[in-house]
Each structure stands twice: as C-alpha cells, then as structure tokens.
Specification:
The chain has a two-stranded antiparallel ribbon. It has 397 residues and is mainly α. It has a domain of 30 residues. It is built from 16 helices and 2 strands. The structure holds protoporphyrin IX containing FE.
Length: 397
C-alpha cells in the first residue's frame, strides 16, 4: 500500500513536468509559453534546453555572450548596467545616442507630459480666459476719457505693424498647432476619431515646424525696433504705484510704452527666445543639447539650491536632453500663451481705441494723452520744432 501511494505521488508530480517537456510552442515561435512559466512557478522542473540552446547569435557578440537576439539567460547585473547607462555598449552607427538602449527617464517624461503638463497647462489657459471674462464683466471696456478729438497721431509705422503681426500671427498658429500636438489624443481622437486626429497632427506639425521661422524673424524685428523704448525707467514706478490706471480712475503718465507693456515685451522676448531655442533643438534632434551645460551654470551660481532643487544633474543622456527641451518648450509656451491672451484682451475688447494702434497705426490724440501722455508731448514738441502738420505726426522714435 505504501509503495502504491509513493508511486501515485511520483506520478502526480511527474505528470505536469512531462507535459511541459513537449508542449506546443508554435504560438510563441519556439519561445517559452505561459504553461512553461506556470510550471516553473510551481517548482516543477522544466527542461529548458529549448531556451538554453536557442540564444541566437551570441557568438557574434564578444563580451556579452548572454545577450542573444532570441533571448537568453537573464543577467540582472547586465540589465541594470544597461538601464543605468554604465554598460559598455558599442555600436557601429548612430553615435552616442544609439549606445543608450534603455532610458528609464522616458517613463517620467511620458507621465509628466500626459499628466501635469496637460492638466496645469490646460487650467492655466482656461483660468486666464475665465479671469478676463470676470474682469470684463466687472470693469467693462476702458473708455477714452472725454470726447475723441478727431485728430490722430501715428503710433506705429507700417514696418512696426508688420513686425508685430508677423510675431502675433505666427504665435497664434504655433499655439494652436502646439496645443493640437499635446491634446489631440485626449481632445480630438475620442470625439472625431483617430484618423481625424492623425490628419490634424500631420497638418499641425507641418505648420508648426515651418511657421516657427516667421516667429523667430518677428521676434528679432520687434526686439530691435522696441528694445530702447522698453528699458525700465522712473516713470514705470509711478505707473506701477497707480496700477496703470486700470483699477482706479487715474491714468498715470507714460512714455511710448508703459510699465505693463514693458512686462509684456520682456516676457515675449525672453520666453519667446527660450521657446525658440528649445523649439529649434526639437527640430534637429540631438544636435543642440543645452540642459546639462545650463544645469552646470545654475549649480555653480547657487541658483539650484536657492530654489530648493538640490544639485541638478550635469550629465544627461542625449534622450534626456530632448525630453527636457520638449517639457521646457511646452511649459514656457503655456505661460506665454496666458500672458499673450491677456495682452490680446487689452488690445481689443478691453480698451477703447487701443486696437487702432496696430490696425491703422493712427490713434486719437485723446487716447494718446490718456495712456501715453509723455510720448504725446514728446512728439508734439518735435512737431513744433519741425513745423510739420499738427494733425499727423511721426512717432517719437
Ligand atoms: C519659434 C520657434 C518654435 C519652434 C522651432 C518650435 C518647434 C516645436 C517642435 C519641433 C515641437 C514638437 C512637435 C512634434 O511633436 O512634432 C513643438 C511642440 C510644441 N510647441 Fe513649438 N516651436 C516654436 C514655437 C512655439 C510657440 C511660440 C508656441 C506657443 C505659442 C509653441 C508651442 C508648442 C507646444 C504647446 C508644443 C507641444 C508640446 C507637446 O507636444 O508636448 N511653440 N514645437
């Protein structure tokens, strides 16, 4: 009886093992199957010659015999080295980029792009729009003080307006196509379908990549034309102290540009330049790495510890450089879009007479006196000395 029982136990244990020795592995192309894995987990001895003798062309990979193209015995140290970038990977083409086979920063980038970037970025834009609607409902359109005079002064010449519209028009196109790139998968595909989303993305990418150059040219034009008028001076302090007259009823004196406009100018110039540089580095992948070097400077001057960021990594994989460029590009784009939305509001529905400056280029003297009194006096003095036509003047450039 004991012998019989022993035989039975042996048979039950042997059965699955025997079953595993000749399973049908055609579905996995000869690789292990779920049954093999389950058997191993049940501590059943599995004949693994089908794997051991099938490690691909390991002979052709000197130094890494365990890395066959068709799988091989697992080597945790080796995979860790690969993952953390210390494996000695040699490639015949592709340069440094191709030597990075595993880059786990990619998962952090993906999670950030699909999560906080979309959420905070989206809320920033919607919040800005909502604030402007509330502001409009409370304050309405800022009117011109008193009656219009009917006399105009030239605020912006044709070339200035060209530079502004080149910058503004390209910015709007870049903003819309950028948002499509980021939100298409969640905002277009579920409603209009993946095909429609793919078409939008393809078109958007083409527009974004090409219109970018117009933005860069526009940025250079407005910088050269207006930088002198945007240097901070004492009148800005008065303007800021009186909150620009938007909140109260007084309108503080200002030159060609008031302090609020100077903030917009420097935001556009600095953020726009940074967006452009990272954008160009996205256009030419791996050619313009800049974050490791920037982090080194930020560490050196102590800015990183001041901001509580600790020591920033000064050695970055080429892929990490691209991921950071993409995130920085999009984060700054969101901030600048919020600022520009507020700027567009003031220049259109928010303030009576403001649009004329960029439309025809001619503004009513009453508007000029209200918002840029010092500038108006300057050009009137110029006009007096040159004995020109008092109703149409050249701007005080
Ligand atoms: C001026 C030079 C610019 C260049 C060279 C540039 C280039 C690029 C490139 C190559 C991409 C990646 C597109 C892709 O996935 O195929 C991108 C994405 C993007 N760009 Fe720009 N861009 C520029 C300006 C702007 C501006 C001014 C804005 C905002 C108004 C903007 C907003 C965005 C956004 C939101 C994305 C999507 C980011 C994402 O998918 O996560 N870009 N840009």
């Amino acid at each position: 009886m004991r012998v019989l029982l022993w035989l039975l136990v042996c048979l039950t244990m042997a059965l699955p093992a025997t079953a595993q020795t000749t399973p049908d592995r055609s579905a996995t192309g000869g690789a292990q199957t779920l049954a093999d894995i389950m058997a191993r987990q049940n501590s059943v001895a599995v004949d693994d010659t089908f794997r051991r003798e099938n490690v691909g062309d390991s002979a052709s990979l000197p130094g890494v015999p365990q890395l066959g193209t068709q799988g091989g015995v697992s080597d945790p140290e080796f995979w860790r080295a690969l993952r953390y970038g210390s494996a000695d990977v040699r490639v015949s083409a592709g340069g440094e980029v191709a030597t990075v086979l595993v880059q786990d920063g990619g998962m952090r980038w993906l999670a950030y792009r699909a999560g906080p970037l979309r959420q905070y970025g989206g809320w920033l834009l919607l919040g800005t729009l909502a604030l402007l609607v509330v502001f409009y409902l409370l304050r309405g359109k800022i009117p011109i003080d008193g009656e219009k005079t009917g006399r105009t002064v030239t605020r912006f010449r044709a070339f200035e307006r060209f530079g502004h519209w080149l910058l503004g028009g390209s910015f709007i196109l870049l903003g819309i196509t950028g948002l499509i790139t980021l939100f298409g998968r969640v905002a277009i595909a579920p409603y209009l379908g993946k095909e429609a989303n793919a078409t939008f993305l393809e078109l958007g990418k083409w527009v974004h990549n090409n219109v970018a150059w117009a933005f860069i040219v526009g940025l250079v034009i407005i910088f050269v034309m207006w930088v002198v008028h945007n240097l901070p001076d004492r009148t800005d302090l008065v303007w800021i102290a009186q909150a620009g007259g938007i909140v109260g009823s007084k309108h503080p004196p200002a030159k060609k540009f008031n302090a609020g406009q100077k903030v917009i100018f420097w935001s556009v110039v600095l953020f726009g330049a940074s967006i452009s540089i990272t954008g160009v580095s996205l256009l030419f992948p791996y050619e313009l790495p800049m974050f490791a070097k920037t982090f080194a400077v930020v560490n050196d001057i102590g800015l990183s510890s001041l901001l509580g960021l600790g020591e920033l990594s000064e050695t970055l994989a080429p892929q990490e450089e691209m991921q950071l460029a993409q995130l920085w590009h999009a984060i700054l784009a969101f901030v600048l879009m919020a600022i520009v939305i507020a700027h567009i509001y003031i220049g259109s529905v928010g303030m009576e007479g403001a649009y004329d400056a960029m439309g025809s280029g001619e503004v009513d003297e009453a508007w000029a006196k209200q918002h840029h009194s010092i500038w108006l006096e300057e050009i009137q003095q110029e006009q007096d000395t040159s004995q020109g036509n008092p109703t149409k003047q050249s701007p005080a450039d």
